[in-house]
UniProtKB/TrEMBL annotation:
It comes from Roseibium litorale. NCBIfam families: lipoamide_DH. It comes from the Bacteria. It catalyses: N(6)-[(R)-dihydrolipoyl]-L-lysyl-[protein] + NAD(+) = N(6)-[(R)-lipoyl]-L-lysyl-[protein] + NADH + H(+). Its cofactor is FAD. This is Dihydrolipoyl dehydrogenase. Its EC number is 1.8.1.4.
Length: 467
């Protein structure tokens, strides 16, 4: 029986990053993964495959509808879905193989099988053939992630009624796609199939899409998606999905109750959220406490109530994002190696990889109002940005929110082409406690989309030049 400093259960972005950092800091590390490949939800069935299809479908859309106005004549593009899916699989393969390589490079021992905690210091691994190995370790990190939240009364078969996993693998473009849930995953995958030809209707329980995002952003973004052909039924709930011939009938009711309406669909995507995944881990026997929402309870330093057992990523409180899980993995590894580790939860960017992209960091206007913070807001539209005009990507804006007294930037929200890249200058500024004046006085290369960030900052502390 080997003795480890650390055994990490789950090799998603939280687990594998934690393992690598700990190994870099001199700890003897093993990882346990029940999937055949490393990388977790993110690399296998989440962030990476969805971005491969988002990019490919965006190119298809550009070739079909964007080229002509730039003076490029091509015949109507034809979809070769199997090749697009092969591109997605190649991207998954190269990423998961990359993680396997990094684990090896850092001398981390990988175990494939279901990890179960026998007690603090002991993890049992059951391999696919049923054989069992017990690993002894000083510390255990649970990084088992999350799973799709089911919709009561609706059975997911991953063919016609799909979760995000099935929606990444459809064999043909559905004529009509009903997306249940107007959150990030539903809008991204709805965009993919919409660009490839599906008629997409999004049914959302709340009165806005993108739940916690800034209201102004959500409203404008919905308008843009509608212009692209996406239909929305807000303040509505799906109460049933029934087979009818080869298709489906989706029953939709007003969220507050009332007369039901039936929508026809070829495919229904259930994307109402994700929930923490702890099945088979033996938490009850090990005495590890969960909160009311089934998340592993931690003390702010990722320690559970059982000494020597820690948890990070989607399985604990906080936004279910790969980079949040990664940063927690690094911080915890540093703490386990005797260093100081820290994650600044006020500066975790969130990105929706649609076209245009939506990106945000820090507080929304609604949050600032609710907290009674007096703030000033500066906004700049991409329609007034030279580079955006040159690229025909003038949809969207940048909004900077800063404390009215100190000018410290509290939130930045962007809708626009490349917003997911631009948001990071705001994140760095906010990490350093910067002001809108700092941002507005920082020289930005011309012509770039990022100049709109500078102009929004200028509008926040005084006046923009180009508006
Ligand atoms: C379609 C989709 C798109 C997404 N896009 C983005 C995006 O663009 N950006 C972003 O930041 N986030 C995105 N996410 C969310 C992101 O995937 C998660 O936040 C992230 O993967 C969480 O990382 P994690 O390490 O906590 O868990 P996971 O990635 O879920 O990894 C957990 C791993 O633990 C393994 N495991 C579970 N139990 C056991 C056990 N008992 N023994 C052994 N192994 C076990 C699982 O097999 C899995 O591999 C997306 C998610 C989906 C579904």
């Amino acid at each position: 029986m080997s003795q480890y400093d650390l055994v990490v259960i789950g090799t998603g972005p939280g687990g594998y990053v934690c393992a690598i950092k700990a190994a870099q800091l001199g700890l003897k590390v093993a990882v346990v993964e029940k999937r055949a490949t490393h990388g977790g939800t993110c690399l296998n069935v989440g962030c990476i495959p969805s971005k491969a299809l988002l990019h490919a479908s965006e190119m298809f859309e550009e070739a079909g509808h964007g080229f002509e106005s730039l003076g490029i004549k091509v015949s109507k593009p034809k979809l070769d879905l199997p090749v697009m899916m092969k591109h997605k699989q190649d991207v998954i393969d190269s990423n998961v193989n990359g993680v396997a390589f990094l684990l090896k490079k850092n001398k981390i021992e990988p175990f494939h099988g279901l990890g179960r905690i026998l007690s603090a210091g002991k993890v049992e691994v059951t391999a696919e053939d049923g054989s069992k190995t017990v690993l002894e370790t000083k510390n255990i990190v649970i990084a088992t992630g999350s799973e799709v939240m089911p919709l009561p009364g609706v059975e997911i078969d991953e063919k016609q009624v799909v979760s995000s996993t099935g929606a990444l693998e459809l064999e043909k473009v559905p004529g009509k796609l009903v997306v249940v849930g107007g959150g990030v995953i539903g809008l991204e995958l709805g965009s993919v199939w919409g660009r490839l030809g599906a008629e997409v209707t999004v049914v959302e329980f709340m009165d806005k899409i993108l739940g916690p995002m800034d209201g102004d952003v959500s409203k404008n973004f919905q308008r843009m998606l509608k212009k692209q052909g996406m239909e929305f039924k807000l303040s509505s709930k799906v109460t049933g999905v029934a087979k009818k011939g080869k298709g489906l009938e989706v029953t939709v009711e007003p969220a507050k109750g009332g007369d039901a309406q039936v929508l026809e669909a070829d495919v229904v995507l259930v994307a109402i959220g994700r929930r923490p995944y702890t099945e088979g881990l033996g938490l009850q026997e090990a005495g590890v406490a969960l909160d009311a929402r089934g998340r592993i309870e931690t003390n702010g330093h990722y320690a559970t109530n059982v000494p020597g057992i820690y948890a990070i990523g989607d399985v604990i409180v906080g936004p279910m994002l790969a980079h949040k899980a990664e940063d927690e993995g690094v911080a915890l590894a540093e703490m386990l190696a005797g260093q100081a580790g820290h994650v600044n939860y006020d500066v975790i960017p969130g990105v929706v990889y649609t076209q245009p992209e939506v990106a945000s960091v820090g507080k929304t206007e609604e949050e600032l109002k609710a907290a009674g913070v007096t703030y000033k807001a500066g906004k700049f539209a991409f329609a007034a940005n030279g580079r955006a005009r040159a690229m025909n990507h003038t949809d969207g804006f940048v909004k900077v929110l800063a404390d009215a007294e100190t000018d410290r930037v509290l939130g930045v929200h962007i809708i626009g082409f490349g917003a997911g890249e631009m948001i990071h200058e705001a994140a760095v500024l906010m990490e350093f406690g910067g002001s809108s004046e700092d941002l507005g006085r920082t020289c930005h290369a011309h012509p770039t989309m990022s100049e709109a960030v500078k102009e929004a900052a200028l509008s926040t502390f005084f006046k923009p030049i180009h508006a």
